[in-house]
Design a protein that fits this description.
The chain is an alpha+beta fold. The chain is about 20% helix and about 35% strand.
């Protein structure tokens, strides 16, 4: 089993969720987060001058999946979270992190492992 943590733009959440559901992945947790990467925030022009935002709003999606669903999940997220018009995406589209998971326990039933996902 693996934990997938995806950081995405908020406006891509519906497309990412639908793409994951299309791959049979429905369980996930979504959190609002702020962050920065290579894009280093943005600077906006206002009448009073320039205003720089160092940390941009993002969403973090966490899910635990069986090993066979890792690649389909990565594909679903990368295809649906890209915002570039040329198919390449843009800075700030996000990142995906994959972690090993030793055990999962469903609290309500006591099920363990893949059955608990």
């Amino acid at each position: 089993m693996k934990k997938i943590e995806a950081i995405i733009r908020p406006e891509t959440l519906d497309a990412v969720r639908a793409a994951l559901e299309g791959k049979g992945i429905v369980g996930m947790t979504v959190q609002e987060v702020q962050g920065r990467g290579r894009q280093k925030g943005v600077c906006l022009q206002w009448r009073a001058g320039e205003y720089c935002v160092e940390f941009l709003p993002k969403l973090r999606i966490d899910m635990v999946v069986d090993d066979v669903k890792v690649e389909p999940a990565i594909e679903a997220i990368t295809v649906s979270a890209k915002t570039g018009h040329d198919g390449k995406g843009k800075n700030g589209d996000g990142k995906i992190f994959i972690y090993p998971v030793e055990e999962v326990v469903r609290i309500s039933t006591g099920e363990r492992g893949k059955e608990a996902i």
